[in-house]
Amino acid sequence: MRFGLIVPRLLMLVVFVFAGCGGGEPADPGTDEIKIGAIFDLTGPTADIGTDYADAVRAWVDWTNGRGGIGGRQIDLIFQDYAYQVDRAEQLYSQFVQEGAIVFMGWGTGDTEALVPRVATDRIPFSSASLSHRLGDPEEAPFNFLVATSYSQQFLVSLDWIAADHASGGGSGRPGVALLHNASPFGLSPWTQLGEDYAAQAGIDVRLFEMPRGATDFTAEMIRIRQSEAGYIVIQNTSAPAAVAVRNARSLGLDATIVCLNWCANALLVDLAGDSSEGVVGGMPYPPPWVDAPGLADLKQHLAARGDDVSDRTTAYTQGWFTSEIFGEGIRRALESGEPLTGESIRAALEEITSFDTGGVTVPITFSTGDHRGANGMRMFRVENGAWTPITDFMTAPEVR
Amino acid sequence: MALDCGVFHTTYRSDMALRRTPVERGRMGLFILLLLVFPFLASPYWLNLANQIAIATIGAIGLNILVGYTGQVSLGQGAFMAVGAYGTGLLTLRFGLPWGVSIVGGCLMTAAIGTFFGLPSLRLKGLYLAIATLAAQEIIEWVVTHWTALTGGTEALVLPAPQMFGLRLNSDFNFYWVATGLALLTALFTANLFRSRIGRSFVAVRDQDIAASVIGVNIFRTKLLAFATSSFFVGLAGGLIAYYRNIVTWERFTLETSIFYLAMIIVGGLGTIRGSFFGAALITLLPAAITNLGRALQESAPGVAVQLPNIQQAAFGLVIILFLIFEPEGLSKLWGNVKDYFHVWPFAYKRGEARGG
What is A151-284+380-396's CATH topology? Predict the structure, then answer.
């Protein structure tokens, strides 16, 4: 056999053998470790925030296992990077469920929405970092849970804050808002779900501007925003592109107030945008992990024990930790109920969580059979001297009539 | 089509058969038997992979008709799949058509749009045509994300689950039959296409267009027909993705998709049907294999774990480069070599010497 043929043949062999490693025997749900499946974006377009979220989930699992697990049972986190690719997400999801995962932690909006019917059929409680409002509606997504305030409600709170800020600054007439959003379902969801209706109700002029995927400059968008004379720019995108937009705005001399939602209101934005980020306002359903809140003590202690510096971590870290914590609480209650531990019993246990106190980290978390959106409020922060500083107490999302 | 050594046909019927020797027929029978038994033995993980491979095979055969058989390079694959997916989805959502009808509608729509974007092929060849189809990719992507009234813009289209006889067709198990059946039909159609006058004219255009035109092939018509046929199947792949996943978003049909499909047919083997299947299988299984290899390493060598995601990305590229270096004619040729080796096994004249063909 010529050498030239050996290499591709060996490669083929490796591919088929290892593709075959997927899908082992399902574990016995009665006594073994509790398996939690997860997909993270560590190399894809949202890796900027995905890495911290992933680290936090893994840290929470270490911390919990170090304290004896849940109800004496250890947690086995099975996870992989999926690089924000929907196909990979679906493969990994079915692989992990096959391996016995009874709870699943997802990531992006596109893949979470694509998985909704599967998750409902498999009866796997599913948490996503995507906070698309409709994923919290049990009629549409019976096994999906939103552990933080949805994008739509974040946008509503931001609009309330803008209206108040506009009035207190002596502004007359309606405040003009530019919603600068990622070109995806993730980017648009605050507008299409509730946002449009509430803007009309509250009398706020909102115009939409899209941030094309992969763009490295948003000067054109900023010039159009300047022409629209909007006094406020709400950004719904991840930190890296948002930082570029903030720099572009400042270098054009645009003095509109910039308000970041969930995924760009974090330390990364300050790092990337530098001085331009001064004065940027951020709506944070989860604060940075170094703020003063009793609920963050465990997290800080765990990080310190590992020799990790809490000040390097972003809001995504807090979100990853508490998303795990609340699912952990659901699992603990399901075990205590004496029912066999299944996706079904965990969902029932999660739905009984009422006014769960996160120790000042978030508004109290409440789920019910009719509503899987755990929180409906957040605090506003502002970058002052290069650090996020709280400027309001918790604000609750208004009702949309 | 080269005849195997020692095979003599004594009737026209046997000469023109699709599978000409008992061994070929046996192998095909075995393959189909495997396809029939597979879903009953496979886990959902494997079924999911198999369905992805079946859909990718249809898309790759479609692209191969254009690139491999007719020699017209296309970078618009992702966009044409988007047309198929959105066409199918919108026909269902706006007009309430049943899934079967809307998929056919989506395919026809893709064929029409593919033909339109094939028009520059009369004047452009090679890299120049590639750039023209790149324009198609960008234009279609732009239209899909900006014509909000029609496509919903960057919002996702959520489709109802396809039903047949009260069964939900897009569960992994049920969809397997739909996707595999359609992949087999696509392969059968294409195999026969290239035994016909039209198919041969495609190949003639690829090999030497001036000579083809001298012997009476209408080049423009042939090229457009190739674009239409190719796009039809590419649209079918798009429509199937829409129904399998229940959801259509533009993010799935970017330039990256076009490049992945080109990689499939190049790694698999240009201008062969089995190459399309091998390529689709490899490009689908490779990331899964790398993931599982990574997970195995994670446990044994946790130090590597931090860099693992990056290594996985690099490994994917490396494997493809190695394939191209060591077997530039693709997996299809590799399969041919294996067959040749066993053809005279164990009495090879010169051990391991692969015959041409």
Answer: Rossmann fold (3.40.50)
